[in-house]
Amino acid sequence: MIPHEVERFRNALKESTKQLLELQENLKKTKVTEPLYIIDVHVLLLSDKKFINRTIKYIRRLGVNAEWALRMTLDHYKQIFEGLEDVYISGRISDVQYVVQRVLRNLSGEKHETVWDVGYDGVVIVSHDLSPADTAQMKLDKIVGFATDSGGRTSHTAIVARSMELPAVVGLDNVTRFVRTGDDIIVDGTSGLVVVNPYPDMLKRYEEKKRHYDDAKDEYLKYAKLPAQTMDHYQIGIGSNIEFIEEIPSAITHGAEHIGLYRTEFLYIYRDDLPSEEDHFNNYRQVVTEKNLAWATIRTFDLGGDKFTKYQKKDKELNPQMGLRAIRFCLKEIEIFKTQLRAIWRVSALGKVKILFPMISGIEEIREAKRLMEETRRELVAEGVKIADRMDIGAMIEVPAAAVIADQLAQEVDYFSIGTNDLIQYALAIDRSNERVTYLYEPLHPAVLRLIKTIVDQAHHANIRVAMCGEMAGDPLCCLILLGMQLDELSMNHLAIPRIKRILQQSTLSESRKLLEKAMSFNNALEVRAYVQNYMNERFPDEFQKKET
Question: Which residues pair with residue 297 across a beta bridge?
Fold first, then answer.
């Protein structure tokens, strides 16, 4: 029995891999490219030795069949992911679940994918969740939106929607309970709202909003390839934030001049073992060698020790966001850190690359990171490895302490990159994931504006450049405020780039300085937002139409 079950399991793995590769080929024939990396991940999981060996161990030691052993393996991975504070990481258990379900179907002999022909245009897909296999078998050109019970911003559904530039609302818990085939649905991706069988007047309003959006989108793309230069000739560099290399083509199309933030956390998940130097190098190479981008900023991994419990014994942290994470973890686990540093140095020989250290809070951290950078450089030179002569080193300013000592940090680095997502959260003592206090999360809070202005002023006083890579950088409402502060670069979701460029090209530095001065004269966030909102409504009436209720 046991040899037979092991053989059944191995055959199901082979068949699952074959099916996924066929699905990947189907996806390549569509206009959707971003989800291809997810198929790669699923194929890797199917060949992962620890995944395979654990399942076979259960079969042999417990005498269970392949199906039971596979479910035990899934439970093992669920325990690993369970309780992780990082939503991005914990959400990846869905990939393991997809792979396990596929193998289980092959073990049972169940029939697999056939192409879904929805029969007519204008379809909204409503589902508990969607896998790459689901979307690979859809006629995607007939779909106009998505709504799912589960998922987050890094879920497959969200990535497909961004790739196709379609509205999507994910993580609704029970939307499938309220929707039936044939229902009329409004999917408002900007507000996270799904309306089932709307009244005629609401439907009419949304149809008008969609027409306005489509017209504006075509107009915005005209500005994508133009520089972000004001009417009085002040120019800001515009970059894109990316998590996956598959986002690069769309980033370029939408006007990205460089990669202002490449998040590297993806390389550390989906696996039981740590990524090798070659894993890092092969991934970064694809970003750095893109000829249509001036440079790529690679941020060293921003993960906490709770993601590496397999490699170190530690107590569970009560507040991982303020615990041993990012640069703090890197400086504790030097070998893990140096593996990434070696790969970044190696790709520096292939194109212009900048390195960015996250969550810097003091001088000692940046100096130690620089020491390890230099140590790694010397080792590679001694090994005869070709690397660049030097590399720009940046500090991510996302902790209030770093903003306060920005003048000192500026003496240690080549540039700053302001991470407003965490900076605002820490400065205002707000947990963005807590719905009861998210209303207090305010980028235009006077304290936040003062912190940002301090950072920019101290950077320029030290003759270094300062960028912003948080969500605030791509917020049209904040655009002139940031221009008034004279940031050198803004890096954002690539879909926001054309609109930001258009606003900048129709503005002047002098007017933005006056707007900033007035905004900073108010002593509460409500007054600041009201003033800026009114100013932008009057200055750009086509850009800032008031939301309909």
Answer: 354
Task: Label the pairing between strands 258-263 and 415-418.
Answer: unpaired
* Domain region containing 491: 215-310+322-541
Catalytic residue chosen out of the listed positions 469, 478, 479, 494: 469
**Are 223 and 142 found together in one domain?**
no
Domain boundary among 53, 81, 108: 108
Integer-rounded Cα Rg, in Å, for the chain is 25
Q: Are 531 and 522 in contact (CB under 8 A)?
A: yes
With residue 298 as reference, give the H or E element that holds it. strand 296-299
CA distance 173 to 23: 28
What is the average pLDDT across 32-60?
82
Q: How far apart are alpha carbons 456 and 443 in whole angstroms?
A: 16
Concerning whether 460 is annotated as a catalytic residue, the answer is: no
Judge whether 385 lies within some domain: yes
Catalytic status, residue 478 = no
For Cα atoms 156, 159, 163, give the angle at the middle one, nearest 5 degrees.
Answer: 135
CATH code, domain with 292: 3.20.20.60
Instruction: Compute the distance between CA of residue 464 and CA of residue 466 in angstroms, rounded to an integer.
Output: 7
DSSP state, residue 546: P
Instruction: Tell whether 342 and 401 lie within a shared domain.
Output: yes
Residues 431/452, Cβ–Cβ less than 8 Å: no
Main-chain phi, psi angles of 169, to 5 degrees: -130, 120
For 444, half-sphere exposure in the C-beta direction (CA atoms, 13 angstrom radius) is 26
Q: Quote the pLDDT of residue 14.
A: 95
Residue position matching structure tokens 């949304």: 206
Q: Is residue 210 part of a domain?
A: no
Are 14 and 48 in the same domain?
Answer: yes
pLDDT top residue among 33 and 218: 218
Assess whether 79 and 169 both reside in one domain.
Answer: no
Return mean pLDDT, the chain. Answer: 87
Q: Which of 156, 258, 280, 445 is catalytic?
A: 156
CB atoms within 10 A of CB 63: 12
* Total number of domains constituting the chain: 3
pLDDT: is 479 or 78 the higher one? 479
3 against 160, higher pLDDT: 3
Indicate the pairing of strand 235-242 with strand 258-263.
Answer: parallel
